[in-house]
Design goal:
Blueprint (H helix, E strand, L loop, with lengths): L12 H5 L38 E4 L12 H6 L22 E3 L10 H6 L7 E8 L11 E7 L5 E6 L2 E3 L10 E9 L5 E23 L5 E25 L5 E12 L2 E9 L5 E24 L2 E24 L6 E24 L2 E23 L5 E4 L6 E17 L4 E16 L7 E14 L5 E11 L10 E3 L4 E3 L9 E12 L4 E21 L3 E22 L8 E15 L6 E2 L5 E12 L5 E12 L2 E2 L3 E8 L1 E12 L2 E8 L5 E9 L8 E10 L3 E9 L1
Parallel strand pairs: 2-4
Antiparallel strand pairs: 1-3, 3-4, 5-7, 5-36, 6-36, 7-8, 8-9, 8-35, 9-10, 9-11, 10-12, 11-12, 12-13, 13-14, 14-15, 15-16, 15-17, 17-18, 18-19, 19-20, 20-23, 21-22, 23-24, 24-25, 25-26, 26-27, 26-28, 28-29, 29-32, 30-31, 31-34, 32-33, 33-36, 34-35
């Protein structure tokens, strides 16, 4: 959990640093389902599926009464042993990756997907939640357990949420975080459903304290006192329309616009052993906006159904980073300014035709995607007259585009009551172009697809296995030069960058524990070609590029343990443990090492009790994260935080119709760390120039949340 570290691009630091949101598990009180006799929702038994023998595990709204959910998403968070996976930023729309469906359908957009929509669906509109095997759904790309949330339309209703927080040190208060939405029906026979929403997704990050700089012998050559804070405000106005007709046809249209602001302040005072003391100030200004338009239309055609999907995303991202150094000696100030004015676009058109034949479900899909980045980069040096004068910045401006065509065929079939099988066969052809360079377009043809198997050997057990050939995503910014002023490092543009390809084997087994809960174990092995990592470029440059081969091997355990059977009513623990090992050949040493900066270990243990015969809940959470070193050709660094973070909360349900929560994050002083070794040239042939070590205060974060409906 990153609370304060400024990442690859300084303007993104506020997002990476702001983790002042603990998981919200419940909200406004809802009435018990019809037929429920208990008068105390807090002692309703823990969620239990209606059936553990078939392909579906079904949960009803009454199963979640103890948590007093406000939205469908609040319910989904409490499904035992289920981990919500949001959609990956895949190429185009492609295959599904979000393991959540609504009324049996994948939400194919890039403006939040099903998870975002469920946060706007009132809990009273949920009919049931089905946990099903991905292999039996006929939707390409899914693996393991998938949640299908069945919701019904209703009359007009709204919901709101306000989530301010306050940090004890460095960062500014987060006062305006929250959202409001309203859903309703209109038209003859209610043929049009609509949801209007406004959301301020804000982030705050900050840390401060000493930075020690030592030479190759370990002698202290500089001590810094640093203060960093970054803010992020993203205000999204969205309208979603769902319509029916004529006949069995149905469609959706989503319109969203998001202005955003992401300023960063990073200052330090430097006391040097040679007496040449100085102060540095770095500021980042970013004020842009993006919009998303997406829609789909599904109708009967011949013996099947045709679904047409379209998407347009455009982002205007102007950023300026200014760094100045002031000297106690009275020497003229020095400084650098980097400006980047970027336009980012994506246009996707997709068609899916699905039909059934006996026990077989077939789908043919075709997609065209066009992605582009147009960056105008400028670089300036501060002159003795205190004006910023332009300097040559080759590689800082350019336009990169990719045109991609993809076709797939999917076959899904059950083999008896206990086994589901899915086969996906496809390929993509893409053209990568540096429009304003002297390089010829590069064309690629790549096969892709998957084979999946879902098995339910006996009641209470389920298992999934999937083998996939996947084509990964790349960041177009890596084609162009990007200076990192805060760490005095230049990342050269790499026009030869290509998307990685991988063979991915994943397996998962789950066990229902009855009234005790559920546990799942997932394992995976990935063999990645053209892995994206950090490589030498030219004689003495460095940047993002491809290495020939890498592997990932890991396991993840997810469990929900209920304590009701032992008499501790309303109490439970949700626990996730994950470990990963990666291997790639270092481009300088030729030795095997981990993939740069990969997240190789994590622990998350969350406790909650809904107190019987009351409207209170309380809980605590412990989180641990470990990241491997990042290997540049000229330096090696590792950044981490915590490494343990703790949080606690108390919640009051149905306080005049509201759910109110107070919490504190990081009361036990998890800190920000960075350990960086910088060499005087390539690290295999040059001596160590200095070591930079951060051990800095983050401090506690005090949070408040109010949820309700209207």
């Amino acid at each position: 959990m990153m609370v304060g570290f400024p990442g690859r691009a300084a303007y993104r630091a506020a997002l990476l640093a702001a983790v002042s949101v603990v998981p919200v598990a419940a909200s406004a009180q809802t009435a018990p389902a019809p037929g429920t006799t208990t008068t105390d929702p807090a002692v309703v038994p823990a969620p239990q599926p209606l059936s553990t023998a078939g392909a579906k595990r079904v949960y009803l709204p009454v199963d979640f009464a103890r948590f007093a959910p406000n939205t469908a998403y609040d319910m989904l968070q409490q499904v035992p042993g289920f981990t919500i996976r949001v959609a990956d930023q895949e190429r185009g729309l492609g295959q599904a990756s979000e393991n959540v469906l609504i009324n049996g359908e994948r939400i194919a957009n890039k403006s939040g997907g099903a998870v975002d929509e469920l946060q706007k669906v009132p809990a009273g509109n949920v009919v049931r939640i089905e946990i099903v095997d991905a292999a039996g759904l006929g939707i390409a790309g899914l693996v393991g357990q998938v949640a299908n949330v069945i919701v019904k339309a209703s009359g007009g209703s709204g919901r709101f949420e306000w989530d301010p927080d306050f940090r004890a040190h460095y960062a500014r208060p987060r006062l305006f975080a929250g959202s409001i939405s309203y859903s309703g029906k209109t038209g003859k026979d209610g043929w049009l459903d609509y949801t209007l929403s406004l959301e301020d997704s804000t982030g705050r990050g900050g840390f401060g304290g000493p930075v020690l700089i030592t030479d190759a012998t370990g002698a202290l050559i500089e001590r810094r006192e640093q203060v960093y804070h970054g803010e992020s405000d993203m205000v999204t106005a969205k309208a979603k329309l769902a319509f029916r007709g004529p006949g069995s046809a149905k469609g959706n249209l989503t319109l969203a616009i998001t202005p955003y602001w992401q300023p960063v302040y990073n200052a330090d005072r430097r006391i040097r052993a040679d007496g040449d003391d100085r102060s540095r100030l770095l500021r980042v200004g970013l004020s842009g906006q993006y919009y998303d338009i997406s829609g789909d239309y599904d109708f009967q055609l011949g013996g099947g159904r045709l679904k047409l999907i379209g998407l347009r995303h455009f982002d205007h991202e102007p950023m300026t980073t200014t760094q100045t150094m002031t000297y106690d000696s009275g020497a003229p100030d020095t400084g650098t300014r980097f400006g980047r004015n970027s336009n980012i676009g994506e246009t996707v058109g997709r068609a899916e035709y699905t039909w059934k034949g006996g026990k077989n479900t077939w789908q043919l899909s075709f997609e065209r995607a066009y992605n582009s980045l147009d960056q105008r980069g400028t670089l300036f040096n501060l002159s003795p007259g205190r004006s910023f004068d332009p300097i040559d910045f080759p590689g800082g401006s350019g336009k990169v585009t990719e045109t991609r065509y993809e076709g797939t065929a999917t076959w899904t079939r059950p083999f008896g009551p206990k086994i589901d099988f899915q086969l996906v066969v496809g390929a993509e052809q893409s053209t990568l172009t540096r429009v304003d360079g002297n390089l010829a377009p590069r064309r690629f043809f790549r096969p892709k697809g998957s084979v999946s198997l879902g098995w339910r050997p006996s009641p209470g057990w389920d298992a999934n296995l999937k083998l996939r050939r996947r084509v990964g995503q790349i960041d177009f910014y890596d084609f162009l030069s990007q200076p990192n002023l805060s760490q005095d490092r230049q990342s050269d543009g790499n026009p030869d960058l290509v998307p990685p390809q991988s063979w991915e084997l994943e397996g998962e087994v789950g066990r229902e524990l009855g009234r005790w809960g559920k546990t799942r174990l997932r394992g995976f092995y990935h063999r990645i070609e053209d892995i994206v990592d950090l490589i030498p470029i030219g004689v003495d440059g460095q940047g993002v590029g491809n290495l020939p081969l890498a592997t990932r091997l890991g396991i993840q355990s997810t469990s929900t343990i209920q304590f009701d059977p032992m008499g501790w009513r309303g109490a439970k623990i949700d626990a996730t443990f994950a470990i990963e090992r990666t291997r790639v050949k270092d481009p300088l040493t030729g030795e095997q090492r981990s993939i740069s900066g990969n997240h190789d270990a994590s622990i998350d243990i969350a406790f909650r009790q809904d107190v019987p015969h009351s409207r209170f809940a309380y809980g605590a959470e412990a989180q641990y994260d470990h990241f491997n070193r990042t290997y540049y050709p000229t330096e090696v660094l590792r950044s981490w935080e915590g490494p343990w973070y703790f949080s606690m909360f108390v919640e009051r349900k149905n306080l005049m119709g509201l759910t109110v929560r107070a919490s504190v994050f990081n009361p036990l002083n998890g800190r920000h760390y960075l350990d960086r070794y910088v060499y005087d040239g390539r690290r295999t042939t040059s001596p160590l120039l200095f070591r930079e070590y951060h051990d800095q205060l983050v401090g506690p974060i005090f949070q408040f949340s109010v949820k309700g409906t209207f």
